[in-house]
Amino acid sequence: MKNVKLNNGVEMPILGFGVYLIPDYDECKRAVLDALETGYRLIDTASAYFNEKAVGDAIKESGINRKELFITTKLWHTDSGYEKTKKGFEASMEKLQLDYLDLYLIHQPFGDYYGSWRAMEELYENKKIRAIGVCNFYPDRFLDLVEHNKIVPAVNQIEIHPLFQREYDESIMKPYGTQMEAWSPLVRGEKILDNETLKNIGAKYGKTPAQVILRWLIQRNIIVIPKSVHKERIIENFNIFDFELSSDDMDKVKSMETGKTAFFSHSDIELLKIVFGIKV
Ligand code: NDP
Predict the structure, then answer these.
(1) Which atom of ligand 1 is nearest to the CA of 157?
(2) Is 185's C-beta closer than 6 angstroms to any atom of ligand 1?
(3) From the candidates 40, 49, 104, 124, which is the catalytic residue?
(4) What's the pTM value of the predicted model, to 2 decimals?
(5) What is the rounded CA–CA span in Å between residue 106 and residue 242?
(6) Alpha-carbon span 92 to 49, nearest angstrom
(7) Which residues make Cβ contacts (< 8 Å) with residue 122, sequence separation at least 6?
(8) Sign of the CA dihedral 210, 213, 217, 220?
(9) Is 3-277 a domain of CATH 3.20.20.100?
């Protein structure tokens, strides 16, 4: 497994396993056990995925040394603010059954995330968390946060895949050493895995479109956390370290950029109206 070094010196695997949309306890626990058996050591969950207990139980049952694992969870916006963040963190740790966390992320740039960040800075300084970061912070909110707080986020987890490549975001975060991590790297299995360009590139290396995408992302030094509940796909997504895309093939994938989200924007007012329950 290749690691990346975060801006505080902590090493994080470049490939991990995401568990969004696996709310069923047995299915999630089995998928995490399959991933750990395959060799994944980074697991990405969130309080809002309602599966931290299943993840914690799988970790325990795997018997893998805690130091070998890299566990991420996230704070939901309804827990934003200093006090609620401390409580939210304790609730996650109880479900995960861990005594320290590797990475804690603010899930969205909503609510009192300044208060949350202060609580997370304290938890980090008290060695309860090895690294702290954010998700879905676009360049404006990212710059505002870093310029007005003590600790610079180690990671920003955002939507990144061949259809939405985020090079501008990368250029803003790079001077701060904030590591990009790609959510929905496979565009959730939709709209992309039957793409002819990816199929043709894959055929040259004996790899699938999913493997080409994940390889393209890690060659950009972006952390990827594909999710699957199927063991053969969990293995497929892991087997991306035995080939290298040529610069010509990297460029071909680059030409797939659409410049827009495949899902939703965190600054979309219609989305915010729903999230905040705004009726006016
Ligand atoms: P992914 O891009 O990882 O795609 C997952 C989907 O693709 C599943 O439906 C899966 O199906 C399918 N799939 C996986 N591997 C393959 C394969 N090799 N061939 C064909 N189909 C495949 O989407 P996610 O949205 O799950 O993103 C990954 C992770 O990112 C999440 O699990 C979560 O941890 C994180 N995330 C974070 C967000 C944030 O706001 N911070 C937002 C969204 C995600 P099946 O399971 O049936 O195999």
Answers:
(1) 41
(2) yes
(3) 49
(4) 0.97
(5) 34
(6) 11
(7) none
(8) positive
(9) yes
